[in-house]
Design goal:
224 residues; alpha/beta; Lysozyme-like; 5-stranded mixed sheet; two-stranded antiparallel ribbon; 8 helices; globular
């Protein structure tokens, strides 16, 4: 962690934990420069390991071995200190616009390298909204998770149907934290079914069950 790093907002990973998750965000700010300034300002106490501009420029703000402050309150697969267990990537985007092709291409290259460096499997690449479904909505409905999955950089469910009662248990087995059903459904659809509306249905449950069957986690033994 030889200085200088652009952002001073980081510390040691607690308990000697190594990165086992990647969390993707959008900045929700008017420009990449504005987002960079915020992520590097000690007064705001927020940061991420990586920032990718709309033009595909990739900048390391915090060393990957360090604990950046990007995730906040939330959990995934039993991990409650997500900052200590993850690498955070911020995409410069207001949250109201499509993601630019150069930006996504750069993200794909970056993800591939991070996953190799830290042996992080595809099902451990998640959205900020996955780990904090009651608080966060990024990277949002415009982000193409299926594209990443086709390259082995994330996962995508196979088409299926199941009884709606199976939805919540399946989400827990896949890794989602405890939260109100409405928040979990919104987060799940935001990532895997952004075109869907209305109440929980058999398709939601079927997709969740497929993910749970293929990528079930042992929550009891996960790092806290």
């Amino acid at each position: 962690m030889t200085p200088p790093w652009p952002s001073p907002n980081y510390g040691d990973r607690r308990g000697g934990v190594l990165p086992s998750l990647i969390v993707i965000h959008y900045t929700a700010m008017a420009s990449c420069a504005e987002a960079r300034a915020r992520l590097c300002d000690p007064a705001f106490e927020v940061s991420a390991h990586w920032l990718i501009s709309e033009a595909g420029e990739v900048e390391a703000l915090v060393p990957e071995v360090a604990r950046a402050w990007h995730a906040g309150a939330g959990a995934w697969a039993g991990v409650t200190d997500v900052n200590s267990a993850s690498i955070g990537i911020e995409l410069a985007n207001t949250g109201r616009q499509p993601f630019a092709e150069p930006q996504i291409a750069a993200l794909e290259d970056l993800l591939s390298g991070i996953m190799q460096r830290w042996a992080i499997p595809a099902h451990r690449v998640i959205a900020h909204s996955d780990m904090a479904p009651a608080r966060k909505g990024d990277p949002g409905a415009r982000f193409d998770w299926r594209r990443l999955a086709l390259q082995g950089l994330s996962v995508w469910p196979a088409a299926a149907e199941a009884d709606a009662a199976a939805f919540l248990p399946a989400l827990r087995r896949f890794g989602y934290p405890e939260a109100p059903e409405a928040d979990l459904l919104a987060a799940f659809r935001l990532r895997f079914r952004p075109w869907a509306f209305g109440p929980l249905d058999r398709v939601d449950a079927g997709l969740a069950c497929d993910l749970a069957q293929r990528f079930a986690v042992d929550v009891a033994s996960a790092q806290a």
